[in-house]
Amino acid sequence: MKSAVVLLPGLNRDRDMIAALTKIGGKPPVTVWQTDTEIPDVDLIVIPGGFSYGDYLRCGAIAARMPVMRAVAEKAAQGVKVMGVCNGFQILLEAGLLPGALMRNASLKFVCREVKLEVANAATAFTSGYQQGQVIRCPVAHHDGNYFADTDTLARIEGNGQVVFRYADGTNPNGSINDIAGIVNDAGNVLGLMPHPENLIEAAHGGSDGRALFESVLGVAA
Amino acid sequence: MTISNTVSITDELIAAHGLKPDEYQRILKLIGREPTYTELGIFSAMWNEHCSYKSSKKWLRTLPTSGPCVIQGPGENAGVVDIGDGQAVVFKMESHNHPSYIEPYQGAATGVGGILRDVFTMGARPVATMNALRFGEPEHAKTRHLVSGVVSGVGGYGNAFGVPTVGGEVQFDARYNDNCLVNAFAAGLADADAIFYSKAEGVGLPVVYLGAKTGRDGVGGATMASAEFDDSIDEKRPTVQVGDPFTEKCLLEACLELMASGAVIAIQDMGAAGLTCSAVEMGAKGDLGIRLDLDKVPVREERMSAYEMMLSESQERMLMVLRPEQEKEAEAIFHKWGLDFAIVGETTDDLRFRVFHQGDEVANLPIKELGDEAPEYDRPWVEPAAPAALERTDVPDMDVAEALVKLLGTPNISSRRWVWEQYDTLIQGNSLQLPGGDAGVIRVEGHATKALAFSSDVNPRYCEADPFEGGKQAVAECWRNLTATGALPLAATDNLNFGNPERPEIMGQLVHAIKGIGEACRALDFPIVSGNVSLYNETNGQGILPTPTIGGVGLIDDWSKMARVRFAAENEEIFLVGGPRELGTHLGQSAYLRDLHGRNEGPAPHVDLAHEKAVGDFVRGLIRSGIATAVHDCSDGGLGVAIAEMAIASGIGATVDLADDCDAVAALFGEDQGRYVVTMSKDSAAALAAANGVNIVRIGTTGGSSLKLGRARAIPVVELKEAHEGWFPTFMG
Amino acid sequence: MIKARVTVTLKNGVLDPQGKAIEGALDALGFNGVGSVRQGKVFDLELDTADKAQAEIEINAMCEKLLANTVIENYQVEII
Amino acid sequence: MIKARVTVTLKNGVLDPQGKAIEGALDALGFNGVGSVRQGKVFDLELDTADKAQAEIEINAMCEKLLANTVIENYQVEII
Ligand SMILES: Nc1ncnc2c1ncn2[C@@H]1O[C@H](COP(=O)(O)OP(=O)(O)O)[C@@H](O)[C@H]1O
Ligand SMILES: [Mg+2]
């Protein structure tokens, strides 16, 4: 399976993400730059975490309007899988590829710690390697992960099973509504999540709960 | 309309530049005429304490700075140390004390930015940072504001830049009430044969300006960093610099890309006194002159004078000498990253520093002498007075269980989780030990087993009581913290924070601390490869505690054998390695005495360096051979706090046996040096062979859910944890 | 040259963690009787044009495309 | 109840990385001729009082103590 990683100035978990895709998928992803207007033929496009454009204005706002994101939107519309982690999630929201918004953490502080995640929908292309309702460990590291959607939107995504990950066991680190940590779009091919599965994939990380996500989406056996 | 570059040079103006009358005479003699206004600014920047080290140079020269693994010692942007396999670790620590007091968020942020720049200027990709922070007493009206601002500033910059914070220190003491300390450490990795230096080579080559535009930020900043505070502090405020981590991240990527292209001959970041210091240093080191044309400098404010451009401390800027044939390639890289790129001058063969603005020559100075002829002082100093001896009978006794729970919840011993959870500790995916242990550890990317350990240490109360022993102790503790993970300590950086060196008693502290540091570094094979001096840390005549922070780096060959603080399992044997027969004895300047009884009394603990080395080498051997299952050194709060921290980190309790006639307070809370708590399985314990001269005492067993110290009440681990974790969040609200 | 100020505020009903925190902090500082705080942004722009009407059209477009996230924010343009 | 708007802007000469990034983004989106962008904050407050003069004094105090960082920012209070 072929994957691509979107590079934008200010992203900084790109190397972590490339390492995870390479280690788990067996080959390195191609990379595309902010000004690229076309994305090669791949099965998965990943927007990694960081602070694109310094997170100035709003997290992900400037990145979402760069040429490469138009290309990502086209691919998404064609059914290519797209995954945004942390800043990548914020960018997908700002680009309108996912519903809702991510606000400043309720504590107003940046938070980096391990949390528990409940796999709220194991029937997506991204989560098939987990059991429905399984609780996994995963680190978070963000300042703006407080998911918000208006009542109608919220009812809709909850009703459709679009909420894929929820903070579990009282570990919600940011005040996110309904403990939402990750969602997919209507069609199920675009995932955004705040936690960093790419930082929990091997012994050196002290655990590998994040691996199944990559295994699912890359179609590699565990 | 042209911008005026002329101001008449008056005595007041000279004094306002921090130049003493005899220093001004020296300038007159050196150049044979009255300096221009811009030249006066250049001299003030080059000759102030911050850039010239005029009070400390004589003593810094006494430090050991070489060793088999040292590739580059002090004198460059950062030290460079060989870690084998063709790789090197590049690191340094630097203070941003005064700016952080004035504007905590931006002061701390730009401090982190500055030290990161020092590291990647040398061609290294930053892989770890630490921050050593000292604040006034918690009750002081400004403390919370400073803690909150500094911590979010450190995080705001480092998190966005994308480097993990792996350790640091936070302490509170009334002596920092009006003068907080922010010492930032950064380390990077580079190929040992691809290190970049500031020495320019070749005549007629382009001097290139890169990065962000120049504004009026921090004009006079380097002068401020060396000036004592007084009540007119408000007037100094507009010199605040604002950090832009986004630009710095782009600058990092652009610089590394450019370095890989082979276009860079010399590179120097613009730190204190920006364009002035960087240009002079590049020329002087290469025995070349530099000619600058300020009309080419990218500016973001209107009508900037030559003086302002030469002294601006706008952040995220670099100066380079490039191979002319690769100019276009270099420019393309910088534009790709959205950064400014301008040729602002050239190297010359006349050994002059010549600066032009609007067609006028605003400075023409001998470039070597600007640095070499800076004043150097042998300031008078007095021998620090030794504190009165402390009799054991003069130390109040206390129930040890109660004392331990209280100590764990004091401002200086409680957990710093509130702080480090605001820092990205995981980014880059190589963090093996997060803050909270003895040292932060990251694996060396691309290598199967190698890892680097980092620790930052000093106990200012010890330094106040005895600067010599305190200096030794800071080095020893840092070395010990690295050792406790199984790392072989390689080299260190020092950040010497002191009061006004023009006062002989302060100068005495500085001299003795440096002597102590030097002695310890020699004994422990732990050379100093970079550092920074911050003097004049005082307000209205009250100096800070002498605070020589030591940041150390160690190498772990195989991280799968690395030791951690947390107990590994139940039912293991606990040993105290390197302690006296009584386990602990020294209560002078201890946390027990200070934080539970409000008394800063007695001598600082003595560090026996030969003992320190023998014990450390023995413990490292236990770790590397896989015998030790958990290791923690004893520092503030002694054996009691060390064991409690091991229990808290694991959730496993322990039983510590104390002889009936034992002095439990001294045994548990004495701060004798050179001690480690080590656990191992019963089988290993049975086979444990004593090392030459290292005292090993079996003190107990792990297991259960409480900590039982001799005959004192068993304290549930959850209670210990609550005390330890509770203070900081409660304090910050 | 035309100067303009754009003010971007959160829509009603959108959670404002920063405003909430400020309410709490003001209260802790002894400022009682602060009913609610909502935080927004201002952008002061300088445009190289003399045509006010045209500028206003342009700035509205900037808001729609970038300056405001119209999912959660309202904006208001004022030529100074 | 009194409503007020506090506007906090960066002092002249203080670097505004956000403003700069927005300038770049507007340019990339094809909005040329934007000379400069400076970003600031607004706070919309509701105070449980009817005394305008008193409210103004209070709000100024809030700015000094919390809402503005007077080292690098200016503020402006407007009772609506
Ligand atoms: N400002 C900080 N940033 C990150 N980690 C910190 C900070 N302050 C303290 N720590 C971490 O907290 C732990 C305890 O600190 P300290 O008591 O100074 O350790 P030690 O006594 O082993 O030197 C260490 O792991 C240290 O790295
Ligand atoms: Mg330690």
TrEMBL record, chain A:
Residues of the active site: C86, H196, E198
GO biological process: 'de novo' IMP biosynthetic process
Subcellular location, record wording: Cytoplasm
A Pfam family assignment: GATase_5
Pathway: Purine metabolism; IMP biosynthesis via de novo pathway; 5-amino-1-(5-phospho-D-ribosyl)imidazole from N(2)-formyl-N(1)-(5-phospho-D-ribosyl)glycinamide: step 1/2
UniProt cross-references to InterPro entries, sorted A to Z: Class_I_gatase-like, PRibForGlyAmidine_synth_PurQ
Cellular component GO terms, alphabetical: cytoplasm
Keyword Ligase annotated: yes
Reactions catalysed according to its record: N(2)-formyl-N(1)-(5-phospho-beta-D-ribosyl)glycinamide + L-glutamine + ATP + H2O = 2-formamido-N(1)-(5-O-phospho-beta-D-ribosyl)acetamidine + L-glutamate + ADP + phosphate + H(+); L-glutamine + H2O = L-glutamate + NH4(+)
Top-level taxon of origin: Bacteria
Record keywords, A-Z: ATP-binding, Cytoplasm, Glutamine amidotransferase, Hydrolase, Ligase, Nucleotide-binding, Purine biosynthesis
UniProt keyword Hydrolase present: yes
EC number: 6.3.5.3, 3.5.1.2
MF-aspect GO terms: ATP binding; glutaminase activity; phosphoribosylformylglycinamidine synthase activity
NCBIfam families: FGAM_synth_I (TIGR01737), PRK03619.1 (NF002957)
Biological function: Part of the phosphoribosylformylglycinamidine synthase complex involved in the purines biosynthetic pathway. Catalyzes the ATP-dependent conversion of formylglycinamide ribonucleotide (FGAR) and glutamine to yield formylglycinamidine ribonucleotide (FGAM) and glutamate. The FGAM synthase complex is composed of three subunits. PurQ produces an ammonia molecule by converting glutamine to glutamate. PurL transfers the ammonia molecule to FGAR to form FGAM in an ATP-dependent manner.
HAMAP family linked: PurQ
Quaternary assembly: Part of the FGAM synthase complex composed of 1 PurL, 1 PurQ and 2 PurS subunits.
Identification of the protein by name: Phosphoribosylformylglycinamidine synthase subunit PurQ
Annotated organism of origin: Aquamicrobium aerolatum DSM 21857
Lineage of the species this protein comes from: Bacteria, Pseudomonadati, Pseudomonadota, Alphaproteobacteria, Hyphomicrobiales
UniProtKB/TrEMBL annotation, chain B:
Domain Phosphoribosylformylglycinamidine synthase linker: residue ranges: 17-54
Entry binding sites for substrate: S95, H96, N97, H98, R117, Q241, E313, S314, Q315, S534
Residues involved in Mg(2+) 2 binding: D118, D269
Catalyzed reactions per annotation: N(2)-formyl-N(1)-(5-phospho-beta-D-ribosyl)glycinamide + L-glutamine + ATP + H2O = 2-formamido-N(1)-(5-O-phospho-beta-D-ribosyl)acetamidine + L-glutamate + ADP + phosphate + H(+)
Chain ranges of the PurM-like N-terminal domain: 75-189, 436-556
Pathway: Purine metabolism; IMP biosynthesis via de novo pathway; 5-amino-1-(5-phospho-D-ribosyl)imidazole from N(2)-formyl-N(1)-(5-phospho-D-ribosyl)glycinamide: step 1/2
Pfam families: AIRS, AIRS_C, FGAR-AT_linker
Catalytic residues as annotated in Swiss-Prot or TrEMBL: H50, H96 (proton acceptor)
Keyword S-adenosyl-L-methionine appears in the UniProt entry: no
Keywords: ATP-binding, Cytoplasm, Ligase, Magnesium, Metal-binding, Nucleotide-binding, Purine biosynthesis
Residues holding Mg(2+) 1: E94, N532
Annotated EC: 6.3.5.3
SUPFAM superfamilies (alphabetical): PurM C-terminal domain-like, PurM N-terminal domain-like
A GO molecular function held by the record: ATP binding
Ranges where the PurM-like C-terminal domain occurs: 203-356, 573-704
Glycoprotein among keywords: no
GO BP annotations listed: 'de novo' IMP biosynthetic process
GO CC terms of this entry: cytoplasm
Compartment(s): Cytoplasm
Protein function: Part of the phosphoribosylformylglycinamidine synthase complex involved in the purines biosynthetic pathway. Catalyzes the ATP-dependent conversion of formylglycinamide ribonucleotide (FGAR) and glutamine to yield formylglycinamidine ribonucleotide (FGAM) and glutamate. The FGAM synthase complex is composed of three subunits. PurQ produces an ammonia molecule by converting glutamine to glutamate. PurL transfers the ammonia molecule to FGAR to form FGAM in an ATP-dependent manner.
NCBIfam families: FGAM_synth_II, PRK01213.1
Protein family (similarity comment): Belongs to the FGAMS family.
Subunit structure: Monomer. Part of the FGAM synthase complex composed of 1 PurL, 1 PurQ and 2 PurS subunits.
Protein name stated in the entry: Phosphoribosylformylglycinamidine synthase subunit PurL
Organism listed in the record: Aquamicrobium aerolatum DSM 21857
Primary gene name: purL
Automatic annotation (TrEMBL), chains C, D:
The reaction(s) this protein catalyses: N(2)-formyl-N(1)-(5-phospho-beta-D-ribosyl)glycinamide + L-glutamine + ATP + H2O = 2-formamido-N(1)-(5-O-phospho-beta-D-ribosyl)acetamidine + L-glutamate + ADP + phosphate + H(+)
BP terms from Gene Ontology: 'de novo' IMP biosynthetic process
A GO MF term: phosphoribosylformylglycinamidine synthase activity
Enzyme Commission numbers on file: 6.3.5.3
Cited InterPro entries: PurS, PurS-like_sf
NCBIfam families cross-referenced by the UniProt entry: phosphoribosylformylglycinamidine synthase subunit PurS, PRK05974.1
Protein name: Phosphoribosylformylglycinamidine synthase subunit PurS
Organism: Aquamicrobium aerolatum DSM 21857
